[in-house]
Fold NADP-binding protein.
Amino acid sequence: MNPSEKKHFTFDQIPDLTGKVAIVTGGNAGIVLREDENIKSETGNQDVEFLHLNLKSLKSVKECAENFLARNLPLHILIKNAGVTSNTFSLTEDGIQEEFGVNHVGHFLLTKLLLPKIKTSQPARIVNVSSRAHRYVESIIEFEKLNDPNAQDSMQRYALSKLANILFTNELNKRYLEEEQIYATSLHPGVVDTKLVRRNDISLSETLVSSSISTEDGAITTLYCATSPEIEEKNFRVRYFYPFGIEGELSSFAEDDDLAKKFWEFTENLI
């Protein structure tokens, strides 16, 4: 993605969000950096708060949801931005392969726990930050080998978790959202200049790394999905977007309804 390319959506197109409540995961690094006081001083918004969430722990996910729900606030926007990858195979506290556990399972549980509140707050948005890397899943998914450290390399583990983000979006809509004013979308933010890319744990080509976009530009497609009136006006549901608010192409696996159902059922058994 050429950073100078004309953008379909820009920051100045974000509508007035006064009164809207949003949760954004992954605010400690990357596209969304958690600097509560800086955000307050730069925006003048004193309502920015930090919620502790460790996606490596399903107990922490439940506690985060409980802490938010105890505040009795509406929830208009849920952005699941957090993501990890590593050259080293590891497991979450619950014994789930880390990329799949953090990038998918933790967010799956968080969404399910917050969904009743989102329904009472509609119109609302659920935004799943996936990746073009989902296209690197090219063979039949062997769920029973998920925790086998020799079954996949780091890119394959990351790609599978990003495919799961998209399939979750599709199945969530089918099960719960078709009759609601809740718009669930997924997206590829671009190759963004974050620690994940600079560390290059997923073996990106030097050309790809050198053409990465800024964290500000990397946030635009997420903000398009979360705030643009166009999403509701055009009834964009289970759509997948590229920078900067352009519909992207999915892999055949990402459009497989049967696979989406299998992922959902497999994940439910993990939580």
